[in-house]
Design brief:
One of its GO terms (cellular component) is membrane. By secondary structure, the chain is of the alpha/beta class. It has twelve helices and five strands. Strand 1 and strand 2 form a beta hairpin.
Length: about 290
């Protein structure tokens, strides 16, 4: 509807104007990202403002995830090698974007949880700042085929909490479904690690699917998936290479982003305090990771 689009464009101008007047926040922000905030916040101007502030605040309190992000660094290349992070090319009939995340190697000695989350967010930033076609929702699919109980010992609890808070309350997406496929019998033990950080409304979206089951296809049409999953979206390697090249092409942006999107807390007005920011402070050192007996 043309009239509605005109009003929405006015709101985006209003967000830009508001952002330019926030002394603690970055001003150089892609318009497509601002549109994503406005859309994901139900076209509420005030809610979008609060979420934008929290988005940058979380990032600034998590330098281990949002600084020194060089796609050519050995740490990021290792994540590219042992994981498959796949935004799929086709959307569902409801206009939802589908994303598959999996470990492609059951040997976890090479896996670093912090580096994996950092790379995950690099991929997210690539999508959020470059894709004009904003989906109506997101459906992440976590393939746990290569996840063993040893995975628990790899988890950094401080980073897990920041990941959960950022993805549920800061990042401008509308989560519609969450699927865990090829779920082993011990998946409940791994899920128990995440559960304290999962909001109740998000927990209701999570569905587990046993190995060799077809229950996923009740929610996600199989043809949207890669060839390896019986779909028509191309091979895992084709999709993966496409996104790695996109991230590599954005290298200069990532290297400059440390400073460009930093928050100056000394300049934050007292009226802009957000209690949620306290949740991203580091846990005591002894609780940053778990070890299996």
């Amino acid at each position: 509807m043309p009239d509605q689009e005109v009003e929405h464009n006015k709101d985006i101008v209003a967000i830009k104007d508001w952002l330019s007047k926030q002394p603690h926040l970055p001003n150089d922000v892609e318009e497509v990202l601002l549109r994503r905030f406005f859309t994901s916040c139900g076209y509420s101007l005030e809610r979008a403002k609060r979420t934008i502030d929290f988005f940058f605040t979380v990032r600034s309190t998590a330098p281990e995830l949002f600084c020194k992000r060089d796609p050519w660094s050995p740490e990021i290349r290792r994540v590219f090698e042992i994981t498959d992070m796949l935004p799929l090319p086709y959307k569902t009939p409801e206009n939802y974007k589908v994303f598959i995340y999996r470990l492609n190697n059951p040997e976890l000695d090479l896996f670093n949880f912090v580096d994996a989350v950092k790379t995950f967010f690099m991929l997210a930033d690539t999508r959020l700042t470059e894709e004009d076609d904003i989906p109506s929702g997101e459906i992440p699919i976590f393939d746990s085929a290569n996840v063993s109980l040893k995975f628990i010992s790899k988890v950094n609890l401080s980073v897990l909490r920041k990941y959960m808070l950022y993805t549920q309350e800061a990042i401008p997406i509308r989560l519609k479904q969450v699927h865990v496929i090829n779920a082993p019998a011990y998946i409940s033990k791994i899920y128990a690690l995440c559960k304290p950080f999962i909001k109740s409304e998000v927990a209701k979206l999570v569905k587990f699917h046993e190995p060799n089951s077809s229950t996923l296809y009740k929610d996600v049409p199989q043809e949207l998936l890669p060839l390896e999953y019986g779909g028509k979206a191309g091979s895992v390697q084709q999709i993966k290479r496409y996104w790695i090249k996109r991230i590599e092409a954005k290298r200069d942006w990532f290297l400059a982003n440390d400073q460009n999107w930093s928050v100056d807390e000394a300049m934050r007005p007292t009226s802009c305090k957000d209690d949620r920011a306290d949740q991203v402070r580091d846990l005591p050192g002894s609780f940053r990771s778990l070890a299996l007996d």
